[in-house]
Amino acid sequence: MTATPKLDLPLLAASQAQKHVTHNEALMALDALVHLSLKSRTQLAPPPDPEDQASYFVPDGATGGFAGQEGRVATFSDGHWMFRTPRAGWFAYLESESAALIWTGTGWQGLGGGDSSPSRLGVNAVADTTTRFAVAADASLFTSETADHRLKINRSSPTGTASVLFQTGFSAAAEIGLTGDQALRLRHSADGSSFGDAMIIDTVSGQVAFPATSGAVGGDYLINGDFSINQRNFGGGALADGSFGYDRWKAVGATSLTLSGGRLALAAGKIRQVIEAPDLAGATVVVSVESPTGAIAVELGSASGLIAAGGGRRQVRLTLGPGDTGNLALSLSAASGSVNFAKVKLEHAPAASPWRSRRPGEELFLCQRYYRILAFSLSTGTGGGTQTYSLPITPPMAFIPVATRLGNMISAGEAGTSRLTSSSANTASTFGVYNGGTGMVGGIFELVAEL
Questions:
Q1: For residue 146, how far is the Cα from the chain centroid?
Q2: Which residues contact 1 (CB under 8 A, 6 or more apart)?
Q3: Which InterPro entries match (predicted)?
């Protein structure tokens, strides 16, 4: 062996002449390599006037006196260049970048400082292949060098995660950030693994929702979304095209539906509710239902989508077109076969909020704008003459209703009661009737102003 295995220092041979030459060469090599300091790792050719013992790492594409020496350390010693091949584990300080480096066997890897990139760093803590930067301290400070400082958390795709996770005893309690989509979410967790949304901000529209707080934002544009109002006494089963069953919901095509335990079983066809002038053109809305047993096809104006099957509140986000003005039709049908679901909502929000029933009587009041049964019996007690009355309709209906007399309320004396033809007596908020000869006006009338 004529040289050392690590630093390639020349060894003295037995009975060698001029031993001092070999010895001095080894010392000069030690002087260059111990506490190795590199001037640069981008110098392609020897500098014109190098300092004695100055060292450079020769990069790919070297020229001149460095040509053919790529990947080696060049040291100018005693008027000429010496080239040595670095071995894994060599340390060097890179002067041009103010960085400490280690040679991995294939390249230089930073240890910190400058623009070097260590694969992991632990400060009073152990970093690993997942948590590559770990700090154990009572406080951490990131401050500006000039006027501003911005902390950036980047993800590689729109379905990835970029967030800050808050833990207690290394168990997650809260999280804020982008988690799986383009919305900024504030999430909470009671068990450290399952999360619920406390706040959602749509990063496109700026809409804000508070899913954990019933009715906080958005409002429900639908009426009778739980199908609880049933003024027509629909018993479930088949509905012909255009016919209404539960209030505000009509059949589109041959439809079959049944309500049981608050859940609607839609066996065939499609149900539709026409929403009166919601002013949602161009808006992003969310349609949601409770625990659908199958996928639900949703149509709203020019937009459409699917609500996937699953437990809890399930939703689809839809962006309406600029032409979706005036009254807006929402249609629901099974994407395949039949489907069972409950509690439909339409909200102008980035995410669905929990179901919240309206106050007692409020839902019926809203339904009666479009359909109601009006029952009355009035008597003058005289038994003769033509009796004329204008009855108030509260709430006012959507337009002048179509009236159908269903029968008497109390007695046969009401039988001749008819609706007045006068436009002033019959409006969306008044119902004019008359009867001649009996002294009684009355009956049961069906008033329809469905959209």
A1: 35
A2: 11
A3: DUF2793
Residue 259: both structure tokens together: 């309500």
Instruction: Give the pLDDT of residue 207.
Output: 78
The label of the residue with tokens 């669905």 reads: 352
Q: Are 330 and 299 in contact (CB under 8 A)?
A: yes
- Domain 237-363 fold: Jelly Rolls (2.60.120)
What is the token pair recorded at 118? 């260590």
Structure letter (DSSP) for residue 10: B
Q: How far apart are CA 371 and CA 224, in angstroms?
A: 12
Q: How many C-beta atoms lie closer than 10 Å to residue 57's C-beta?
A: 22
| Residue indicated by tokens 């450290």 | 192
Confirm if 110 and 101 have CB atoms less than 8 A apart: yes
d(CA 253, CA 241): 4
**Beta-carbon count within 10 A of 285 CB:** 24
Residue-wise pLDDT for 253-274, tens only, equals 999 999 999 999 999 999 999 9
| 289/296 Cα distance (integer angstroms) | 9
Q: Over the Cα atoms of the chain, what is R_g?
A: 41
Instruction: Report the candidate in 332, 268, 285, 341 with the shortest Cα–Cα distance to residue 311.
Output: 341
Higher pLDDT, 114 or 129: 129
Cα separations in angstroms, 321 against 11, 183, 218, 256, 327: 84, 21, 19, 31, 13
Asked if residue 443 lies in contact with residue 376, where contact means CB atoms within 8 angstroms, the answer is yes
Q: Are 304 and 295 in contact (CB under 8 A)?
A: no
> Alpha-carbon distance 211 to 199, whole Å?
6
- DSSP per residue, 320-366: --TT--SSEEEEEEESSS-EEEEEEEEESSSSPPPP-PPPTTHHHHH
Contact (CB, 8 A) for 349 and 207: yes
From CA 419, how far away is CA 434, in angstroms rounded? 6
What separation in angstroms does the CA of 220 have from each of 235, 287, 345, 349, 449?
26, 10, 6, 10, 21
Tokens for 226? Answer: 């739980």
**Residue 136 per-residue DSSP state:** -
CA–CA gap between residue 83 and residue 5 (Å, rounded):
15
User: In which residue are the tokens 């911005």 written?
Assistant: 150
ω before 350 within 30° of 0 (cis)? no
Higher pLDDT, 292 or 84: 292
Tokens read off for 218? 């958005």
Count the helix, strand and coil residues of the chain and give each as a percent rounded to the nearest 5: 5, 40, 55
